[in-house]
Amino acid sequence: MSKMLYGKEHVKRYVETDGEEGHDWRGTTVAILTTTGRKTGTRHSTPLIYQPYGDAYLLVASQGGAPDHPLWYKNLVADPEVELQVKGDRFKARARTATPEERPDMWRTMTATWPDYDVYTTKTSREIPVVVIERI
């Protein structure tokens, strides 16, 4: 897969190939999260680094350390009913932000697969959310 695969093209190729293209990316793993737009009601699919965590999956709403949360995170806060695709497995799920008690271990899990998350925390004053995706 091309290193330049990202955004809409990443989603398209991932969905078309059941993750054969796009799941393995820059030494980590990517899933496709689909949320419902909080203003438009339109479905939006975003490729995101993930890690399994027990029966759930973890995502990080980092936006590279930007000062504001990514739109996909704002959407799932407004409507936690989402869809996640991990390789060929597409399923309905409920999204939630990790609790303060859960977050430290979950953060370590995510920084183990993408160490730049720790760098992103130095670029923003917001606490970067860890998102827990639970199959329903």
From TrEMBL:
Q: Which domain of life is it from?
A: Bacteria
Catalytic activity annotated for this protein? oxidized coenzyme F420-(gamma-L-Glu)(n) + a quinol + H(+) = reduced coenzyme F420-(gamma-L-Glu)(n) + a quinone
Pfam families annotated for this entry? F420H2_quin_red
Lineage of the source organism? Bacteria, Bacillati, Actinomycetota, Actinomycetes, Streptosporangiales
- A single GO molecular function, which one? coenzyme F420 binding
Species whose genome carries this gene: Planotetraspora kaengkrachanensis
Report the SUPFAM superfamilies cross-referenced here.
FMN-binding split barrel
Its cellular-component GO annotations read:
plasma membrane
**UniProt protein name:** Nitroreductase
Q: Member of which family?
A: Belongs to the F420H(2)-dependent quinone reductase family.
